[in-house]
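Two records follow; treat each independently.
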Amino acid sequence: MLAVWYDMQGPAEQVLRFGDLPTPEPGAGEVRVRVTRSGINPGDTKKRRGWLGSSMPFPRVIPHSDGAGVVDKVGAGVDSARIGERVWVFGAQSYRAFGTAAQFTVVPAAQAVTLPDTVGDDIGACLGIPGITAHRAVFGDGPIRCRTVLVHGVLGGVGAMATQLARWGGATVIGTVRHRADLAHAYSRGVEQVVALDGPDPAREIRDHAPGGIDRIIEVAFSDNIDLDAAVAKNHTVIAAYGTGESRPNFPFWPMLFDNITIRLLGSDDFPAEAKQQAATDLTAAAADGALSIAIDEPVPLDQATRAHDLVDRGTRTRTRTLLAIPD
C-alpha cells in the first residue's frame, strides 16, 4: 500500500517518508479500512516533533488517528456484513503504530463507526480527536440542557465542535475569541454570543450574557484564562480544560474553593472506553442531524503530507481543518 511514515522524530520535511509499505491484516476483533480521507490534528504533528520530550513509541509510525473510508476486510469475531460499510475512524494511532496516513489502516472494530449516507467522508475524518475531546468536555459531567456553557476558542477545532455539541445538547452557549478582529469570523460560523478576550472587560461582557454565572467552561488556555473563568463561575461550575499556555498554571484557590469549582483535565487518548463510545454515538447522531458544520480546506494529496503537516504546525488564520486525500 501507499503510505506516509517516519522512523525518527523531527521536522516534517526531514523525517516524513512516502512510498510502499506492506498492507496490514486485521487481527481478531479488528477491521481493515480502505482510507479515503486522513484527518490531521495538532497532536499528530506534536508526536512527530517529539513535543514535551516524547520519544518514538514504535520503531516506525504511520501518523494520524482520525480518518474515513470503507471497511474492506474483517478479523475473526467481526461480522462479515461490515465489509463495504462506510465508516469514520478514531484512535488509529493511539497506542498503535500505524494510523490513517495510508491506503489501509487496521483498528479495533468499535473504532470504525458507521458513517451515515448523509455525512461525507471529509466530515467523518474530522470527528475523532477534536469531536471526542469536545464531547467529553461538554458532557463529561452530565446533561447540559438549559445550562449555560462558555467555550473558549470557538474558532479552534475542539472549540468549534464543543460549541455545536453544546447547542445540540440544549445549552445556551457563549463563545470567546482572542481578538476583536475575530468576532465577525465567529459570528459567521453561527456562534450567537461571542466575547473578545482583548476587549476592555470580557468578564463583564460574559456576565451580561449570563447574569447567574456559567455552568460549564470549556477551556483551551487554562493558565491564560483562569482568573477570568473564576470571575464568571458560580457555585459548582465545572472547568473542563484540554490545553494550557503555562505548564504549571497558578489559579485563585480560595475563591474557586468557596464556589466548589471542579477542574476536569482532559487527555483524549485515555478517556474511558465507554466515554469514547458514547461520544462516537452522539457525534454520528449530531452529524446526521446536520448539527455539525466544519470548515475544511481542500484535501492535500497523500504524497504531499509534509506540506499538510507544515500547515497544521503553522496554523491557519481561517481556522480550517487539514485533511489528506488518499488515492485509490
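The next record belongs to a different protein.
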Amino acid sequence: MIADRFDRYLARNVLAAIVVVQVVLLGLDLVITYINDLDDVEGGYGAFQVLLYLLMRLPWRFYQYAPVGVLIGALIGLGSMASSNELTVMRAAGRSLTRILWGVMKPIILVVVVVLFIAEYVSPRTEQFASAWRLEQMQGEGAVLTERGGWQREGDSFYRFGAIRADDTVLDLTRYRYEGRVLNEATTAKRAAWRDGGWVLERVEVTRFGDERTEVEHHDTLDWETSLTPEQLGRLLRDIDSQAPSELWAYARYLQAQGQVATQPLLYFWQKMLMPLTMGSLVLVAASFVFGPLRSVAAGTRVFYGVITGLAFKYLQDLLAPASTVFGFSPAWAVLAPTLLCAGVGFYLLRRTG
C-alpha cells in the first residue's frame, strides 16, 4: 500500500497529526464531561467511579470524534508540510497532486478500518457495560438499565415497555391485542423475566373486552408467547446511535417484517457503513484548503475553517435525518448528500489550483 519514501513520509505526518488531534479532542471531552458528571455522584458512585465510567466510554467517543479528527488532522498534517515548503518540493520533484492525495488517503484507510472495527465490536459492548455498571453502582445489583421505555408492534399486538434491567428483566409491560380495529384484550404485568429460553410474566392482570361486559383475570405468573428476545428488547430500549451496524440492520429488518417504518435504524446504519466515504470527502476538503484558498494563511486559521466545515457537515446530516422521514426518501441519501457535497467542493477547489 505504501510504495515509496514520499508516501511513507506523507502517511507518517498525516497519521501523527490525526492521532494528536484525537487525543486532544478526547482529553478535552473527558475533562469537561467529568466536571459535568460530578453532579451525579451518589451512593457508591463517587468521583473515582465517574472517571472509570467515562474511561469505559472512550471507544464510543473515539468513534464520534473520528470524522472531525480526520479533517483537522489532515489540515494540520498537510498544512505543516505546506508551511515548510515540503509539498512544493514534492511537486517540483515530479509528484502530481493526484499522487500526493493518494498518499494522504492511505493512512485514512487504516483509520477507517479501526473506526469500523470499534463501531461493530467494541463501542456497543463498552457502552452497554458502562451503562449497566454505572447504574448498578448508583442503585445496586439489578439496577434498571434504561428508563427510556418504548412501544413495539408484533402481529395483532401492541406492546409498551417501561424499562429493562441489566439482568434482562422487563419492568412495567403492557400488551394491547386487537382483532382488526377492535381492542379485545389488555394485559399488564409488573415484570417479565427471561427463563430457560422463554418469557414469564409476573403479577399479571388480563382484561378481556366483550360486546356487553368486561372480564378481568389475575395471575401470579403467565407464559408470554413472543418472538422478542432480550437482545431485541435491548435494541429497542437502548440508545440506537450506540448500536453496532449489524444490530441496526437486524433491527431494521425486524421492524420492516412487522410492517413498521425503519428509517431511524437505517439512518444510523448508513452513517456507520458510509464512514469511509465520509472521511474521504473530508480529507478532500482539507487538501483543497491546503492547496487552494488557504495555502498561505496561518495554521490556526486553517484549523478554524476545518472546525466550521466539520460542524456544517454534521448539522447538514442532522437536518436531512428527519427530512428523510418527512419526505420519504432513503436514509442513505441523508448520509450521502453531505458527503457528496463535501467531495464536490473539494474536487472543485482542487481543480482550480490545477
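Discussion point: The chain has a mean pLDDT of 86. How would you locate this feature using only the C-alpha cell line?
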